[in-house]
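Dear Dr. H.,

I hope your travels went smoothly. While you were away I took the liberty of generating a structure for the chain from your last submission, since the lab meeting agenda had it listed for discussion. I wanted you to have the full record in hand beforehand rather than looking at slides cold. The sequence, exactly as received, is reproduced here:
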Amino acid sequence: MSRRTNAGAWIVSTASLFAAPSLAADDPAVLKDLTAVIALQGQPCGQVLTATKQGDNDYIASCKDGSRYRVFVNAEGRVVVQKQ
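The corresponding predicted structure, in token form, is as follows:
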């Protein structure tokens, strides 16, 4: 294979690694879990429509009612829901 073909394959595979986490955030199971976590914390939301993964166990959730929350696990291992 030529260097150009190898470089192209590397770029495509690297781009797919970065795209995968954002696709996983809109997984229906993740959205359902985030909806439940926000409700258990007593925050109004209704239903999480979209979520953006910020890192491991760290999401920005956008709710049906227009609210946005950051849902993450803090250093002590507790789930935290912060209104954005």
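Two observations you may find useful: The two ends are 49 Å apart (CA to CA). The longest strand covers residues 48-55.

With kind regards,
E. W.
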